[in-house]
Structure formats: C-alpha cells, structure tokens
C-alpha cells in the first residue's frame, strides 16, 4: 500500500498494484487529484507496525495510525491529513518506534529526534512542536534513520492545544466521507490518466 500526501493537507492511500509498472519514458497514472495550487510532498510505503509521521513547515509534527487512512482507488481527492488553514505540510514519512528522524530547515538547521517521543494523534490533531525555527525559516526535509541512544537529540515540546471536539470530528469525518465518495473507480479511463508511475 502507498500513501501520497500533499502540501495542503490531503492524503490518499491505495494499492501499489493500481499504478502499473512502466518504463522511464512513461507518463504514469494519476495518484491523487490535486486542488489548484497544491502539490505532492511525499509518497510512503505502508508497513505493519509503522505510523504516518506528518511534519509541517512551521515545525509541528504528529504520528497517526496507518489504518486511519482508508484504502481507496487512486486518482481521487484523498482525505484530510492535516488542517492546511493552520499550517502547510512539509513532509510525511512512515516511521517505527525504533527509528530516529532527522529534520532540516531552509536555513540549514538540522536536528535529530526519537520517533517514539512524537505523540500519536488522529489525522485531525495539530501535533506538537518538533522543531523550533527562526522567524523566516521553515522545515524543508524529513528523513528516517536508525535509532541511536548516544546521538544528540532534541526534546519534544508539549503543546496545550487540544484535539478537536466530538462535534468537530463528526463534521470533518463527514467531509472526508464526501471526498472519498468522489474517488473514481478503476476504469480504463482513470487508469490511463498521467501523474504517477513505478519503474
């Protein structure tokens, strides 16, 4: 299974078999339907035991269970991964509890974190502060690396912001259901739309 995530907070999970192998000259097939001004920021290979780590440009981060990203046909608009009205997504990565992660900013600051210290929240959670940035700086790169107890790591800053209320969650889940309902079926027409391919 693959998860494709966008800068404006959308994500789609689909079977990699839906993106058939092509040569390097192939145009590929559509993975996710992008809204105007949006762009893909990451593609993840799902694996058992992993969680989806989402990090925003302003240094917020959270992990979410893979199973909360429902499996759909490729080529749809996807579902909410992060509230883009609060922040833009810089990167996503599937991580395990035994991993470390590296974050790099636009101004060249690099930090290391233990993945298991980043809290697991719903897809509607805002996350916690994982990287403190200068006024005009932003997160650019997220990388997964081997755990090292002796390496210097940064501490996670707890935030006081709560997760959405039950009423807010119901509204957001309803919006997700409506978006998922617009996902195209795997017809020959949708299979041939360009955007994504696997060599």
Radius of gyration: 17 Å
In spatial order, strands of the major sheet run: 3-1-2-6
What is the N-to-C order of secondary-structure elements (H for helix, E for strand)? Answer: EEEEEEEEEEEHH
Please state the oligomeric state of the protein chains shown. Answer: single chain
Q: Enumerate how many helices there are, as a single number.
A: 2
Report the end-to-end length measured between terminal Cα atoms. 16 Å
Tally of strands: 11
Tell me, rounded to a whole number, the average pLDDT. Answer: 86
Main structural class: mainly beta
Q: Spans with pLDDT under 50 lasting ≥5 residues?
A: 186-199
| Portion in beta strands | 25-35%
Shape: globular
User: Largest sheet, if any?
Assistant: 4 strands, antiparallel
Task: Please give the share of residues in helix.
Answer: 10-25%
Please tell me about this protein's structure.
There is one protein chain. The chain is mainly β. It is built from 2 helices and 11 strands, in the order βββββββββββαα. Strands 3-1-2-6 form a 4-stranded antiparallel beta sheet. A 4-stranded antiparallel beta sheet has the order 7-4-5-10, with no helix packed on it. Strands 9-8-11 form a 3-stranded antiparallel beta sheet, with no helix packed on it. The longest helix is centred in the last third of the chain and has 16 residues, at 166-181. The radius of gyration is 17 Å and the shape is globular. Residues 186-199 have low confidence and may be disordered.
């Amino acid at each position: 299974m693959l998860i494709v995530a966008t800068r404006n907070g959308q994500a789609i999970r689909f079977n990699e078999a839906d993106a058939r192998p092509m040569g390097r000259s192939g145009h590929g097939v559509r993975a996710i339907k992008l809204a105007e001004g949006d762009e893909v920021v990451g593609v993840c290979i799902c694996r058992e035991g992993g969680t989806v780590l989402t990090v925003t440009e302003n240094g917020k981060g959270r992990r979410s269970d893979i199973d909360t990203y429902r499996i759909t046909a490729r080529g749809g608009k996807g579902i909410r991964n992060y509230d883009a009205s609060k922040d833009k997504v810089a990167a996503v990565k599937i991580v395990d509890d035994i991993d470390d992660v590296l974050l790099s900013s636009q101004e060249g600051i690099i930090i290391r974190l233990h993945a298991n210290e980043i809290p697991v929240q719903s897809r509607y959670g805002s996350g916690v502060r994982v990287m403190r940035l200068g006024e005009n700086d932003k997160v650019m790169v997220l990388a997964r690396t081997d755990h090292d107890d002796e390496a210097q790591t940064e501490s996670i800053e707890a935030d006081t912001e709560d997760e959405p209320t039950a009423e807010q969650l119901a509204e957001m889940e309803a919006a997700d259901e409506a978006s998922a309902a617009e996902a195209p079926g795997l017809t020959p027409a949708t299979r041939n739309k360009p955007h994504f391919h696997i060599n």
